[in-house]
Amino acid sequence: MNPIYLDCNATSPIEPEVADLMRHYVTHEFGNAGSRTHEMGRQAAKAVNEARQQIANLVEAEISDVVFTSGATESSNLAILGLASFAKGEGKTHIISTSTEHKATLEPLERLASQGFEVELLPVDQKGRVTADQVEKAIRPETFLITVIHGNNETGVLNPVAEIADLLESKGEGIFFHVDAAQTFGKIITPLSHQRIDMMSISSHKIYGPKGIGALLIRTRDFHRPPLEPLMLGGGQERGLRPGTLPVHLIAGFGKAADLALKHKDKRESQCKEVREAAIKIFNELGAQINGDNENTLTHTLNVSIPGINSEAAIITLKEVAYISNGSACTSENYTLSHVLLAMDLPEERVEGAIRLSWSHLTPNFAWEPIKLCLETLLKND
User: Fold this and answer.
1) CA pair distance 243, 245, nearest whole angstrom
2) Which residue of the set 8, 272, 330, 374 is catalytic?
């Protein structure tokens, strides 16, 4: 029996309909969307525009709001670093974020801090959440950007981005709001549809689409968009913000994945919730501690620590049964203690034992008993 794949927060399996559509654009309609002089180019451009609309539909955005990138990491870099020149010109240097952000946010913020910007990372509670009240108290006249992760990639904890957006409607003049929605786009719709979210980083391979394509959604507010400068030069694609030939097959796949996410959201969420309930039952029997907020959480993610078990040992023990992780795929090649869990002020031993399991509606039905048996054996041996 093959191990069950429980690392969907790192990357998700691809929907068969998405793969079929991509194959068509690789082998048949492979024209360049920038080629306006012939039908293949026009058909490619049509496919790109259709995908933009499908993606925009998920968060009540305009088709022109969608700027394609290589993924959420590039999108967050563009949103954060792309505002720096404008902010300096306005004499604004203060940025608000949280201590549990993805590295795709934290490292660009470190870059700006080295250039003289003041980056304020708000602490989270022991469940891993920040509050809108904390954000409000941190705002200053020189604040120009607030960037907050919606669903944490390690714990699944959901931050109150809609409440923060509500706050900014009345008290956020001159402040841009960026949300890292890599884990929630296509899964949670209402908060991300808030029109006071100025920029949103999203990724295809987290919603059962292909790797290598994502987008930065950039909304117009008061007839103006955030004044971003591109990180790369060399072409006028994507309103001059992201030069390079558009990968039509990836974009079409992303659009199809977004369309399917909108159509099947409730069914998928119900399936993921059932898996989570079964997982919690098994881990409760093992005496596990849930790392995160069991109420404000993604239904497809569970982060737990089992007293007496080290995460690296658990991963090795389970390798013939399940594929799991002990942190973000972006940093797990060289394991270090999770900055997310440490920011939650959890004991170091608990952080060392933390494992992350994440699944999807495409996860086949499976029994949790083999996983439980392996971990019980590990406990006895220790």
Assistant:
1) 7
2) 330
Shared-domain flag, residues 190 and 277: no
Residue 330 bears catalytic tag: yes
Residue among 263, 358, 276, 373 nearest 318 (CA): 373
256 neighbors 18 (Cβ within 8 angstroms): yes
- Ranges under pLDDT 70 in the chain: 328-334, 382
Entry pTM: 0.95
Size of the chain, expressed as the number of residues it contains: 382
| Domain co-membership, 87 together with 192 | yes
How confident is the model at residue 329, as a pLDDT? Answer: 57
Q: Which are the contacts of 318, defined by CB distance < 8 A and separation ≥ 6?
A: 3, 324, 371, 374, 375
Q: Are 234 and 331 in contact (CB under 8 A)?
A: no
Residues 39 and 138 in one domain: yes
| Residues spanned by the domain of 289 | 4-12+265-381
Residue at 8: amino acid letter: C
Q: CB neighbours of 90 closer than 8 A, spacing ≥ 6? A: 144, 174
- For residues 43 and 167, membership in a common domain is answered with yes
Query: Number of structural domains, the chain?
Result: 2
Q: Indicate the helix (H) or strand (E) that contains 270.
A: helix 248-285
Main-chain phi, psi angles of 182, to 5 degrees: -55, -40
Q: How far apart are CA 332 and CA 322, in angstroms?
A: 17
Q: What is the pLDDT of residue 333?
A: 60
